[in-house]
Thioesterase family protein (Streptomyces bambusae), 568 residues
Amino acid sequence: MSYAAAQASIGDSEFDRDTTVTPRAGEPGVYDAELSAGWTIIAAVNGGYLLALVGRALSAALPHPDPFTVSAHYLSASVPGPAVIRTETVRVGRTLSTGQASLVQFDENGAEVERIRVLASYGDLSALPDDVRTTATPPVMPAYEDCFGTDAGPAPIPGSSAIVDRLRLRLDPATAGWALGSPSGKGEMRAWFELADGRDADPFSLLLAVDALPPTAFDLGLIGWAPTVELTTHIRHRPAPGPLRVSITTRNVAGGFLEEDAEVWDSADRLVAQSRQLARAPRS
Amino acid sequence: MSYAAAQASIGDSEFDRDTTVTPRAGEPGVYDAELSAGWTIIAAVNGGYLLALVGRALSAALPHPDPFTVSAHYLSASVPGPAVIRTETVRVGRTLSTGQASLVQFDENGAEVERIRVLASYGDLSALPDDVRTTATPPVMPAYEDCFGTDAGPAPIPGSSAIVDRLRLRLDPATAGWALGSPSGKGEMRAWFELADGRDADPFSLLLAVDALPPTAFDLGLIGWAPTVELTTHIRHRPAPGPLRVSITTRNVAGGFLEEDAEVWDSADRLVAQSRQLARAPRS
């Protein structure tokens, strides 16, 4: 598939279809959703996809449209199938509103199991002033063409993972050594990131982007499951069209936990998102 | 006062007294508290002190004692006086529990006003394995004696701020230029940090430490109020006795908001806490 071939638009894409939330009649702030099997890593639903879905529910529930800061605590592993998102409007202000959301699924006996609890403050990115005083600089990484895709070189995510087909992820070779048995040991992961159907990035797909790369633990030689405990994301600007650059670093592996710090840069060299998560370190 | 003079202990100090939460009889998970005027900056109660207080309530409510990751969304400015903290146990696991808390005060008509909403995951720091693979390095800053205290050089926090008397804060001269009208422009703030009565640090005082320095905005020449929207803190290790080093950086001032990234290092050169907040940038 050439770069310009299929170009889904915002509102009409795999991502939009699979993050659709349907308000329940007579239950304000409650939304039904279907967790798609298309966004799984091994058997579990990807945490970033889940966050995008909850993010859309909060956008529907709150008077402000855009996530500014979203704090998510992950409670149990989500599985494909039906889910219910319950939101609460905590505070409505002039420029920011704060909401809370809980995504639940149901076990074989019909009992409710909570998957993720979220606190978030929303605003209107379009209403922000244009001032930028950033001292941060975009990640230094090879051009899109010189990074590894799923079609060439090592697979960016090992195992049978449906999410690989939903993303156009091209890993910086410097952070892909683990796939060949030679991790750099630095705790870094960098990639070009797009949705596979060519849909442009928006604030909700940024919530996916911060948690869609292979774990930085892989680059430390720790290959295994690194479940997220908590993930907080700041969305700082509406992303420009074109591929994103995602750069993630881990500096402190200690006591069986690690942090992952992510930055997302857009094609206009704007720092559009910053996130940090606390995850359990793989045991290997 | 010489360094070894007054030495309050954990459990018996100004900080412990002022972060006391009293469980309400017959209302499980509900705590009464008194926000002390001793921890105010100008008229508002300091956000880190508030977080420590909510952190103690969650520690009382949850089966695990120590905050591992605490996400707080600030809703309105707290004032000295009575407050109620309502907690909810969201999930209890073997090694981690997740809870939620809401701190409210009451306006002149007795109506409830929510100040802060918190989601947090707690564990047992003493139960963590000893492995450390940190690539982070302690902040480069002058010795304790060569930093600016409140007794010499510029006041670390301008205005009439009671919190100054509760802290033994010694600012790195390289990040104190703003007090003399010459901010470095780098967006950095570094200080030695202790409680003034000599009480050693613990996980709760770390929640205070990440939000007790002058705003990094001052070092950018932006002098004014920088209210916190959201603050997430990871506590990674129980701090050793002795003064802490707190290093805060801001890299992205844009659209009227900025992030503050804090690291707290203990006297044993352990990275004991990492935090990031989203704040409104001062208008100047």
Remarks:
- The mean pLDDT of chain B is 93.
